[in-house]
């Protein structure tokens, strides 16, 4: 079960979230790792000590939960310094400390990434920014984050384009921006080879928020982009179901779509609220959804080197420290039950047989000729005349739903 699930705790929501929202101030007033005790230190020392305090809390939580992996953005580990050089120097120092923590606890880095959306310099994008200086700054930050991820033994490196998109088409050259994003990806592919890194590159789809339209809209869009620019062999997808539902799809849709093309690399296993139109990043407690996710993960033989990352946060009103543990434990239990039920469904194979029978006609001689490209349009048209009117065949959706329902009991 540990290898099938590969749970990870995210640094940002768990240790960086203050409970604030656009309508109110912070509500988490008992997070000791956010306390500022560096009055007598230099600004640089103050940032580093705060980062170490956060790391101490993080690894204490990882070990108490029993999770084996964590994930991070660069600025989650340590806040930015006064310059790019200082920021990168701080990352070097805190990564030394994190490496010690990893060696002491056995907890590993599932993936690293770069925050290319939070600072005002990225308000018009990072790799898609109209200003080449911003593109270059983003490249420098990704370069360092890749080095830190490699140093920490990270098994994946994620790209989420939170500002890679636009608010208005009137002031946007869409083709140029997409070309630049592809050029950016080609730079990091080349540098990965130079580093000798083996971590897996992942792109995370999201349709909107914070931008009105984002270029990594959903799994289909990202896969098409990668194929268009010849990057399909260098990247897979990190699917976040809350992003999938924002794109108008069912919770499990992008997981199944990416898996269909052997492009599923990892999952940010959160959920959203169907009654609101933004990314709420909640912990999944719905076993039916967990079964659907784990069924596909089992069918493809697992997610490794990816995993199930809890890109989720407790609610603003859940202010007790124990709420963080309760949320992770509850969602881990949900996915663990989902795994067990998915295994039972696959072993029983009623759904599999039903789907197989539904497409059985494609196993005919002509069906196979169509699939492998040997058939001609004339041949298929002649068959249609000979076969006559097709049978009226039920899709049996309700039966399939009943099979799933019985499978999760």
UniProtKB/TrEMBL annotation:
Keyword annotations for this protein?
Answer: Carbohydrate metabolism, Isomerase, Metal-binding, Xylose metabolism
Which BP terms does GO give this entry? D-xylose metabolic process
Q: Show the PROSITE patterns listed in the entry.
A: XYLOSE_ISOMERASE
Enzyme Commission number: 5.3.1.5
Top-level taxon in the UniProt lineage:
Eukaryota
Task: Decide whether keyword Ion transport is in the record.
Answer: no
Xref: InterPro entries = Xyl_isomerase-like_sf (IPR036237), Xylose_isom_bac (IPR013452), Xylose_isomerase (IPR001998)
Q: What are this entry's molecular-function GO terms?
A: metal ion binding; xylose isomerase activity
Q: Which reaction does it catalyse?
A: alpha-D-xylose = alpha-D-xylulofuranose
What protein family does this chain belong to? Belongs to the xylose isomerase family.
Question: In its UniProt entry, what is this protein called?
Answer: Xylose isomerase
């Amino acid at each position: 079960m540990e290898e099938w699930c590969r749970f990870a705790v995210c640094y940002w929501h768990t240790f960086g979230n203050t409970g604030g929202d656009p309508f109110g101030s912070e509500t988490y007033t008992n997070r000791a790792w956010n306390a500022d005790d560096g009055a007598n230190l230099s600004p640089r020392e103050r940032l580093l000590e705060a980062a170490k305090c956060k790391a101490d809390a993080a690894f204490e939580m990882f070990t108490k939960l029993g999770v084996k992996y964590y994930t991070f953005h660069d600025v989650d580990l340590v806040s930015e310094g006064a310059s790019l050089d200082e920021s990168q120097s701080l990352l070097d120092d805190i990564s030394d400390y994190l490496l010690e923590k990893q060696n002491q606890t056995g907890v590993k880095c599932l993936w690293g990434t770069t925050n290319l959306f939070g600072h005002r310099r990225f308000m018009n994008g990072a790799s898609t920014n109209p200003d080449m200086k911003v593109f270059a700054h983003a490249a420098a930050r990704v370069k360092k984050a890749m080095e830190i991820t490699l140093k920490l033994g990270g098994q994946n490196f994620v790209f989420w384009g939170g500002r890679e998109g636009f608010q208005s088409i009137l002031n946007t050259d869409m083709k140029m921006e997409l070309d630049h994003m592809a050029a950016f990806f080609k730079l990091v592919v080349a540098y990965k080879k130079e580093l000798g890194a083996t971590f897996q590159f992942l792109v995370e789809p999201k349709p909107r928020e914070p931008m009105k339209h984002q270029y990594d809209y959903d799994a289909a869009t990202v896969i098409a982009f990668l194929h268009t620019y010849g990057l399909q062999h260098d990247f897979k997808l990190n699917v976040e179901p809350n992003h999938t539902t924002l794109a108008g799809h069912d919770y499990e849709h992008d997981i199944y779509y990416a898996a269909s093309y052997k492009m599923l690399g990892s999952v940010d296993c959160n959920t959203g609220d169907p009654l609101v139109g933004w990314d709420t990043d909640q912990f999944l407690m719905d076993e039916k959804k967990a079964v659907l996710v784990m069924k596909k993960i089992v069918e493809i033989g697992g997610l490794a080197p990816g995993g199930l990352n809890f890109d989720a946060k407790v609610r603003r009103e859940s202010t007790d420290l124990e709420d963080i543990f309760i949320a992770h434990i509850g969602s881990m239990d949900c996915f663990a039950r989902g795994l067990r039920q998915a295994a039972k469904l696959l072993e029983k194979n009623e759904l599999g047989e039903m789907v197989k029978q539904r497409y059985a006609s494609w196993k005919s001689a002509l069906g196979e000729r169509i699939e492998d490209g040997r058939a001609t349009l004339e041949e298929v048209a002649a068959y249609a005349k000979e076969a006559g009117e097709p049978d009226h065949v039920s899709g049996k959706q309700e039966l399939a739903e009943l099979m799933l329902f019985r499978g999760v009991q």
